[in-house]
Design brief:
The protein is of the alpha+beta class. Helix content is 30%, strand content 29%. The chain is built from seven helices and 16 strands. Strands 7, 8, 9, 10, 11, 12, 13, 14, 15 and 16 form a ten-stranded mixed sheet that branches. It has a six-stranded antiparallel sheet with strand order 2-1-6-5-3-4. The protein is globular and about 55 Å long.
Length: 283
C-alpha cells in the first residue's frame, strides 16, 4: 500500500481523505502536476514544481509552499514508499470556504506516490492511433483538476476508435495538444510543434532540447491538414515519453509504422533518461 502526504501528515493511501467541504470537491478548484522517477530520482522535479506554482497563479489559487519545501516533501514521500520507480502526483486544492464558493487561502497539499508501470509495448511498436476532437481548453497553460473537457474528448475518441491512446484537441482548424500529451509532427525535413495555446509539457521541453541540438525545428501553428499529411507524428508526456502515432482518425501516417526520425528521437530520449538515472541527482 502506498504512503501519501496529506497536508502535513503521511498516511496510508487507503486512509487518505479530503473534507467534503474542500473547494476541490465542491467546485473543482485546484491544480496538479504529475511526474515519474528514473533510477528512483524524480525527473525534472524543479520544472514540475515551478509549473505547479504557475498553474496555481493562473487560477488565483494560493500556493504558500515554496519550491524548496515542495521538493523536500516530494523526496520524503518517495523515500517512504521505496518503489524502484514511482509515479508522483501533486495536488493543491482550494481548501475550505465559508460559503462554499470563494477560497479563504487555506489551500491543501497532497503528494501521492504509486508504483510506476510501463505503458503497453504496442504503443511503441507498431505505434498507436489517436483521434481528433473539436475542443479548446480553458486556460490551457494551467494544469487544473478540471478534466471534464479531457474526459469528454477521450470518451468521444474511444467511441470512434477503441484503441486510440489519446484525443487530440483541434480548435479553428489548428491542432493544439492531446488531453494528456503534447504533439509534434515531422514534415519536409523538420520537426514542428505548436508554440502557444497549450500546456507547456516538461517532457515536451526536454524533447525540444534534443531537437534543437539537431536543428530543423519549428514552433508554430499546425493545421489539421498538415497533421494528416505529416511524414511522422509523435506524442510526448511524462507517462508516454515519446510515442509514435501511426494513425490519426482514419488517416494512416507515413507508411503506418514508426518513422526513422521518430525512432532516432526515441533512442535519444532513452539515452538521456538512462544518463539521468545513472547520475542519481536532481538535475
Amino acid at each position: 500500500m502506498s504512503i501519501f502526504y496529506i497536508n502535513g501528515n503521511f498516511v496510508k493511501s487507503a486512509e487518505a481523505r479530503l473534507p467534503a467541504t474542500d473547494l476541490a470537491i465542491l467546485r473543482g478548484y485546484g491544480v496538479f502536476d504529475f511526474l515519474r522517477t528514473y533510477g528512483g530520482t524524480p525527473f525534472q522535479l524543479g520544472a514540475h514544481l515551478r509549473r505547479l506554482r504557475r498553474s496555481a497563479e493562473l487560477i488565483q489559487l494560493n500556493c504558500p509552499w515554496d519550491i524548496e519545501t515542495l521538493g523536500e516533501i516530494v523526496l520524503e514521500t518517495v523515500r517512504r514508499n521505496g518503489y524502484p520507480e514511482s509515479n508522483i502526483r501533486l495536488v493543491v486544492t482550494g481548501g475550505e470556504s465559508e460559503k462554499g464558493f470563494l477560497p479563504h487561502g487555506d489551500s491543501r497539499l497532497l503528494v501521492m506516490v504509486t508504483p510506476w508501470e510501463a505503458p503497453p509495448s504496442w504503443w511503441y511498436e507498431p505505434g498507436a492511433p489517436v483521434v481528433t476532437v473539436e475542443m479548446q481548453r480553458y486556460l490551457p497553460e494551467a494544469k487544473t483538476i478540471n478534466y471534464i473537457p479531457g474526459i469528454s474528448a477521450q470518451i468521444q475518441a474511444s467511441k470512434r476508435n477503441p484503441k486510440a491512446i489519446d484525443a487530440i484537441y483541434v480548435a479553428d482548424g489548428l491542432v493544439t495538444e492531446g488531453t494528456r500529451s503534447n504533439t509534434f509532427i515531422f514534415k519536409a525535413g523538420r520537426w514542428i510543434t505548436p508554440a502557444a495555446g497549450l500546456l507547456l509539457g516538461v517532457t515536451r521541453a526536454e524533447v525540444l532540447k534534443l531537437l534543437e541540438a539537431d536543428g530543423g525545428l519549428e514552433l508554430r501553428d499546425i493545421l489539421l491538414e498538415e497533421y494528416y499529411s505529416a511524414d511522422e507524428v509523435i506524442l510526448t508526456s511524462s507517462t508516454k515519453e515519446v510515442v509514435p502515432v501511426v494513425q490519426v482518425d482514419d488517416v494512416t501516417i507515413g507508411d503506418g509504422a514508426p518513422g526513422e526520425m521518430t525512432q532516432r528521437l526515441m533512442r535519444q530520449w532513452r539515452a538521456m533518461t538512462d544518463a539521468y538515472a545513472a547520475a542519481g541527482e536532481i538535475l
